[in-house]
Design goal:
- The chain has helices spanning about 5-20, 45-60, 70-80, 90-95, 105-110, 135-140, 170-175, 195-200, 255-265, 265-280, 285-295; strands spanning about 35-40, 65, 85-90, 115-120, 130-135, 155-160, 185, 205-210, 225-230, 240-245.
- It has about 300 residues and is an alpha/beta fold.
- The protein folds into two domains: about 35-125 and about 240-295, Periplasmic binding protein-like II (D-Maltodextrin-Binding Protein, domain 2, 3-Layer(aba) Sandwich); about 130-225, D-Maltodextrin-Binding Protein, domain 2, CATH 3.40.190.120.
- A five-stranded mixed sheet has the order 7-6-8-5-9. Strands 3-10-4 form a three-stranded antiparallel sheet, sandwiched between helices. A two-stranded parallel ribbon has the order 1-2.
- The protein is globular and about 55 Å long.
- The N and C termini lie far apart (about 40 Å).
- InterPro entries: ABC_Gly_betaine_transp_sub-bd (IPR007210).
- It comes from Corynebacterium sanguinis.
- It holds the Pfam family OpuAC.
């Protein structure tokens, strides 16, 4: 088992969850044989979790979904202490979180603690990305992440945990040589959603951490004119959707169902479903999931 600073954060999160007792909102273990799916605190994770839930229900499994648990430290803590059985993850970030070098399924399996295991990688990929307004890109000649060094100050609208991620401020300095002293994070906990976009457009930040599959919409539904900076040094690793499981906790056949539906999920599907959720339609993740699984029949 590999122990890293990230693993220490998991231990703290797990102890915190356990100490909360029966009032703990994460303590959803379900009845015997029930698959409990956890999701992170951003819409795409909820949509993927609901897709798995719908596919499992259609195959006769009892399923609960524990939605919006929190950041990676929190939901992996819940997974390891057993209040959930499986959670949607992203291959590269998860491998890095446990101290591994992102590459493939074998690299992730090697990095995971002994009590966790991963399912099959989906062809669908959702990567973190650095975005700036088109106006700033044109004015300052910004085309790649390296070009951020042209700015006097770099303020990144991003989730709070972004500040400690390998592809966050430390990665900008280590990989692209940008002076750490001029990098700061404006913490916004909406997973690159409208509040993050608003901060970018209104000048509370000049860079935004927004997933490649997320539409850059303002709170009124209007699309912001932003661009993704290219990443020639591959600071941000491949991010295939992958189920992560508490080892031995799923009923027989459940992982096969999840792997099967995951194999049919594409990056384009994620873009379309995210737009349905946060765009004018405001479709619920459960409805989006039902439509997607029905389309596979």
């Amino acid at each position: 088992m590999k122990l890293t600073a990230a693993a220490g954060a998991i231990v703290v999160a797990t102890l915190t969850l356990t100490a909360c007792g029966s009032d703990d909102p994460f303590a959803v273990s379900g009845e015997a044989g029930t698959v409990v799916i956890g999701t992170a605190n951003f819409p795409e994770s909820e949509i993927i979790g609901q897709i798995w839930a719908e596919a499992l229900r259609q195959e006769g499994f009892d399923v609960d979904v524990n939605s919006g648990i929190g950041s990676r430290e929190v939901y992996l803590g819940a997974l390891q202490e057993g209040s959930i059985n499986v959670v949607p993850e992203y291959s590269g970030n998860l491998t890095q979180f446990y101290g591994g070098t992102p590459a493939d399924e074998a690299a992730l399996a090697e990095a995971l603690p002994d009590d966790l295991e991963a399912g099959d990688f989906s062809p669908a990929e959702s990567k973190d990305a650095y975005r700036v307004t088109r106006q700033l890109a044109d004015e300052r000649g910004l085309g790649t992440i390296a070009d951020l060094d042209k700015l006097d100050q770099i303020t990144i609208a991003a989730p709070p945990e972004f500040a400690e991620r390998p592809y966050g401020p430390a990665g900008l300095s280590d990989v692209y040589g940008i002076d750490a002293a001029k990098i700061s994070v404006n913490p916004i906990s909406d997973g690159g959603g409208p509040l993050t976009v608003q901060a970018l457009v209104e000048g509370a930040a000049n860079v935004g951490n927004i997933f490649t599959t997320s539409p850059a919409l303002l709170s009124n539904g209007e699309e912001a004119d932003v661009v993704i900076l290219e990443d020639p040094e591959n600071l941000i690793p491949p991010q295939n959707v992958v189920p992560v499981i508490k080892a031995g906790s799923l009923p027989d056949g459940a992982l096969d169902v999840i792997n099967s539906v995951n194999a049919q999920l594409t990056t384009e599907d994620l873009v379309e479903m995210n737009l349905r959720n946060v765009g004018p339609e405001r479709a619920e993740p459960s409805a989006i999931a039902q439509d997607f699984v029905s389309s596979l029949s």
